[in-house]
């Protein structure tokens, strides 16, 4: 496996094999599998879980890693082609990225959406331009529309909790002080659809997921016997749900317009998951979230502190699935 | 040893055994003792010695580590229970800390005092709330009132310098541009008392150490045959001293009131250790300080650059004693 | 080798031996050569290549490293002797540096020029004061006037590309939004002269390299049969050139005067390397640059994206030559 950029790039069987490998490495550790191997981690945006779990995962497999965070001890990066670099950014990604790749055996790259031009973000213009500069194995640590490590961790979590393969998976929009990117919602619906689930996207008006994201999830559902639809009717969506996957994202009806987005969300304070959301769900319905979560804005304390919440399990599984990705990518090279 | 949060949590014999282990690891290194083990280091406040020496110590024992510094490449953490997280902090410690703990074999946590409410700081309200979220071995990298790694390093330094067990140990308040926490003075007086020394806290009016800190040190002295008292009389305190341990801390008479504290300390410029402080001490009296030290504010160049100063030895011993703590904590798990 | 501070400190044969060792480690890796060894990296200024390549190099040799960046998770450092430390800096280098050195087997230190007093910078006053505090092997990660790791990487790159030993090496000043230090130009001319090349410093009026830098390069040329001269005549300099080494630096005619420097460089926009600079050079003339490079300010896209540009090879060779330095320094201790 040369690149791990999106679950959709893999055959369903390959995804299942990664999950199996992750379980095997948990029960039968291979502390020397990646001895001498080096992972470079380039963060153009902040991180907690990704930053810690990739370093820990490499160490658990006997390898090592280094972290580069432009703007934190390293100068800022320019990403625009043809820029006259007379501003704050001292280094262009066209130099910086291939240079970092030349120091390591695999590179991880985080580059969030710009959040201004929906078409450009959906096309992964920025991430793809950077990815094209890398001739080493490359891992997507979250791009504009994809967070495959999170999706794989969530799938493993669903399996461990024995959530029915054809169960109801409700991705619900929740509130946040400002617009966030589409990567996690896009990856979550695709993952659940590929697992074979009944996927419902629950969101207020103005926050519909863009057609390319819904279409991609529907193609995955077609392979696996799942389904994908969307609604603004909370009661209908939650009835019988096995999973409520809470996630914040920006208004797609006014993408890139912070003021308009802010006016919309100011009326949506009740989109904070509370205990009463689970009145009509399956009794053991789970609350999932990729973290970080704004407590009492996106999800209430009463839910996060209840046994429903499996957010820490999801986060722990970032480590287990990423070790499988690293093992698959680097063991034999 | 599951937790290393305060020297007072250990029996005196356990402390002595850690010091013995530290010495043994210096003479007989065990470069593979912690092979495959991972230490997570979470810094809610800045660090130099702790940051470097824990990474170095894990490496010298064959293990590895990762560092998380909220606000530096990682979003800021919220610590308040029940907070409505609509501000700058994106992640609550109730998620962030258990997640990080799940990636490592032991976690180190630094969280300084808030410096507003003396009772809350003395009760370690903040640190304990975070510590209660960790189910892995946990190391205190400095909390509101305790810095056990520093205390252990200082004890080892006293032993190496053959400072008499019953010698006079003067903890002297020294000046600083602003109020600093009570962790190091509290840990230093407790350590010296537990070692069996004649401990004198020398400080101007308004800077008395709070009764719980003095009482804890007196309990330690009762075990070991030492003593603990306080005074504002510099000449009396320093006469015959074997150690002057200089330390800055905030006024306890107006805790949390920066303006009142500033007025007090503006009259106390002469609380900067100079050569003439040693006129009546033992001839080989040592100057100790946990570092960082404000030169010519807290301690004058003439003292820091003289053979009296053992501040670098103390700092080096951070490495040696922490290796013992890590070895004791992680070798057999 | 106890210190690697400047190529001029080594005999020419020692430099050649380091280059040979770098090539040997590329073809015959020694993944356990530095097992258990620790490199401390102290950055008083930002970094990308140095930060990543030293960590990667230690890992490839089986060792490990830690990074300290004052102001990023660590307090700011004071460097002035005798300072009354009542400002922002909480730690003096007189404590911080020896303490860090005590935790590792070798220390790397980056401390750029102050850029105010040319004589002080040429004398390496600041770096030398810090270096004198270190009793462990020490590596210069870039000081006021020297960047020996870059010079060694450049030399290896020239050899790999089979640039004639006596070929014409043109160090050309190029523009930048502000004055940059003299370390790389000084090291580049010295390196090329020591290699035996015909070195020409091409720069506009006001940007002559200071006599101590030119004299040092001339002494190297005298050893190796090379030569060193300077000119402001671009056409003359570039005719027949085998290498154009582009580099930004501050005006030496008004060193430390940002306004005067800015007025000078505002008239020098045409000092940006473009394809037409190569009209009279050797056909296979190379473009070198130490990176980071301001695209379309210092060097145009058309050159950086052409096969002439070997900037990524130079950056990759930072890794290979530094592994040789680390191996020579640490293998036998």
Question: Topology, pairings included?
Answer:
The structure is a homotrimer of 333-residue chains.
Chain A: E1 3-4, H1 12-27, E2 38-43, H2 49-60, E3 64-68, E4 77-78, E5 91-92, H3 93-102, E6 106-110, H4 118-122, H5 125-131, E7 138-140, H6 148-160, E8 168-173, H7 183-195, E9 198-202, H8 211-224, E10 227-231, H9 234-238, E11 243-247, H10 258-266, E12 286-288, H11 301-304, H12 311-330
Parallel strand pairs in A: 1-7, 2-3, 2-6, 4-5, 6-7, 8-9, 8-11, 9-10, 11-12
Helix pairs in contact in A: 1-12, 2-12, 6-7, 6-12, 7-8
Descriptive notes:
- The structure is a homotrimer of 333-residue chains.
- Chain A has 333 residues and is an alpha/beta fold.
- Chain A has 2 domains: 3-146 and 315-330, Rossmann fold, CATH 3.40.50.1370; 162-309, Rossmann fold (3-Layer(aba) Sandwich), CATH 3.40.50.1370.
- Chain A is built from 12 helices and 12 strands.
- Chain A has a 5-stranded parallel beta sheet, with helices on both faces. Chain A has a 5-stranded parallel beta sheet with strand order 10-9-8-11-12. A two-stranded parallel ribbon of chain A has the order 4-5.
- In chain A, helix 7 (183-195) links the parallel strand 8 and strand 9.
- In chain A, helix 6 crosses helix 7 (183-195) and helix 6 packs across helix 12.
- The longest helix of chain A is centred in the last third of the chain and has 20 residues, at 311-330.
- Chain A is globular and about 55 Å long.
- Chain A starts with a strand and ends with a helix.
- In chain A, 59% of the residues are buried.
- Chains in contact: A-B, A-C, B-C.
- The A-B interface holds A 31, 43, 46-49, 51-53, 55-56, 59-60, 62, 64, 67, 69, 72, 177, 291-297, 301, 304-305, 311-312, 315-316, 319 and B 35-36, 38, 40, 64, 66, 68, 70, 72-75, 78, 82-87, 90-92, 94-96, 98-100, 102-104.
């Amino acid at each position: 496996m040369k690149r791990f950029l999106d679950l959709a790039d893999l055959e369903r069987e390959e995804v299942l094999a990664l999950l199996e490998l992750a379980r095997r490495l948990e029960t039968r550790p291979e502390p020397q599998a990646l001895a001498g191997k080096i992972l470079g981690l380039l963060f153009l945006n902040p991180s907690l879980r990704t930053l810690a779990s990739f370093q820990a995962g490499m160490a658990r497999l006997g390898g090592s890693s280094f972290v580069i965070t432009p703007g934190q001890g390293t100068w800022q990066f320019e990403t625009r082609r043809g820029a006259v670099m007379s501003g704050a950014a001292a280094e262009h990604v066209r130099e910086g990225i291939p240079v970092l790749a030349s120091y390591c055996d695999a590179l991880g790259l985080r580059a969030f959406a710009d959040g201004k031009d929906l078409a450009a973000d959906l096309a992964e213009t920025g991430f793809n331009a950077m990815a094209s500069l890398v001739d080493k194995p490359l891992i997507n640590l979250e791009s504009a529309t994809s967070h495959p490590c999170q999706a794989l961790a969530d799938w493993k979590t669903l399996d461990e909790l024995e959530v029915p393969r054809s169960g109801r998976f409700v991705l619900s929009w929740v509130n946040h002080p400002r617009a966030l990117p589409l990567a996690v919602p896009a990856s979550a619906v695709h993952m659940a659809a590929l697992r074979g689930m009944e996927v419902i996207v629950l969101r207020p008006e103005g926050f519909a997921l863009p057609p390319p994201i819904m279409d991609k999830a529907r193609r995955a559902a077609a392979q696996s016997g799942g389904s994908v639809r969307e609604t603004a009717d909370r009661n209908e969506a939650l009835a019988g749900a096995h999973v409520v996957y809470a996630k914040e994202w920006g208004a797609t009806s006014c993408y890139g317009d912070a003021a308009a987005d802010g006016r919309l969300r100011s009326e949506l304070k009740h989109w904070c998951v509370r205990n009463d959301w689970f009145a009509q769900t399956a009794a053991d319905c789970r609350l999932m979230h990729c973290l970080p979560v704004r407590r009492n804005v996106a999800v209430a304390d009463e839910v996060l502190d209840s046994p429903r919440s499996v957010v820490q399990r999801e986060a722990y599984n970032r480590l287990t699935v990423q070790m499988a990705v690293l093992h698959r990518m680097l063991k034999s090279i």
